[in-house]
Amino acid sequence: MYPFNFAAGGESRASLFAALRVPGFDDRDSEMIVGFDVRGAIPSDAGRLRYKILKAELSVFVENNNAFSYDPTPDPLASSYATSDPEYVADTDPSKPIEVWPVAFRGGFDTLSWQETSPFFGGNPLTESVEGVRYCYPALLDNFQQPTDMSRQVRQKLPGSPITVGRLFDGSNHELTPGALVPQGTRVRFNLLEGNSNTYVYLQNAMNKGVLLLSVATLEPTTGGPGGGTGGITYPRIYTKENPTAGVLGLEPKLSITVAYTCDADLNGDDVVDDADFQIFAAAYNELLDARADLNLDGVTDDADFSIFAVAYDELICPS
Ligand SMILES: [Ca+2]
Ligand SMILES: [Ca+2]
Ligand SMILES: [Ca+2]
Ligand SMILES: [Ca+2]
């Protein structure tokens, strides 16, 4: 997802950079959308409550060498504001973290119809950048899974966080030192279960559809244009599956996901409905705007869901 991408879905590497507060460009300007079709491994279309996500880890691999520094922690959004902005705060560690977001769509696309060759907006590529129009965008989701486009989060000062930020590991699985330059081949690992209840439901919906799409992005700005200009490249580039080296070395984007496929009320996926599930239910019930235990699928967890949960809890065993 980049307005001037001449080979959508065919690039051998994906640049991640921001165009902060530049009119005509989204703040999260160049993103990598990764997609995984799990229909060969996990039965789809059973209703999202059947899918209990026990583990979900995305890995992507850095293609450029020592071009940016490792920031393992979220930065305040205000550290990306103009320094003249009264709300500006300094970034206390080098660079910006690499983020992963749920995606949502405009232009009539959805998870199954949007393809890696789909246009950014209108035709592909654009001849002139337009902000706020990209067909596939990083989304902040509410408990109804209603999306807000976070592409222009900095200029719009929108509150909200990605699912999580990446942790970086070398080939021996040792985490890089925060602040260190990031060598080629570094693994960027995202624990997708670090997100909130809305992103958990997003993962469940993805398993129900059989396809998971995610946006990998950063607020690390490009200086002097996407080629780096006179400032040089200070942002991550990521191996795509089209990259011949990635194919040989196994550096394509990877999803590792473990899903229990059980009855709706078994909220932790161990095939019984007991106190452990009640604890999850109670946590969602206390929040109300939390759809993890939304057994009647109206977007909230309330008394109506408890009536359904209580029946299964009395039975203990998941009905087959
Ligand atoms: Ca940080
Ligand atoms: Ca930082
Ligand atoms: Ca259980
Ligand atoms: Ca409900």
Poorly predicted parts: none
**SSE class:** alpha+beta
Number of strands: 14
Report on the biggest sheet: 6 strands, antiparallel
Mean pLDDT: 94
Helical content (DSSP H or I, runs of 4+):
10-25%
| Overall form | globular
Description:
- The chain has five helices and 14 strands.
- With 320 residues, the protein is an alpha+beta fold.
- Strand 7 and strand 8 form a beta hairpin.
- It folds into two domains: 13-259, no CATH class; 264-315, Type 1 dockerin domain.
- The structure holds calcium ion (4 copies).
- One calcium ion is lined by residues 71, 75, 91, 93, 95-96.
List descriptors.
320 residues, alpha+beta, Type 1 dockerin domain, 2 domains, 6-stranded antiparallel β-sheet, 4-stranded antiparallel β-sheet, 15% helix, binds calcium ion
Write a concise synopsis of the structure shown:
It is built from five helices and 14 strands.
How would the blueprint of this fold be written?
Blueprint (H helix, E strand, L loop, with lengths): L12 E3 L1 E2 L9 E3 L1 E6 L13 E11 L36 E8 L30 E6 L5 E3 L3 H4 L7 E2 L1 E3 L17 E5 L5 H13 L1 E8 L18 E3 L4 H6 L4 E8 L13 H13 L15 H13 L5
Antiparallel strand pairs: 1-13, 2-3, 4-12, 5-11, 5-14, 6-7, 6-9, 6-12, 7-8, 10-11
The chain binds calcium ion (4 copies).
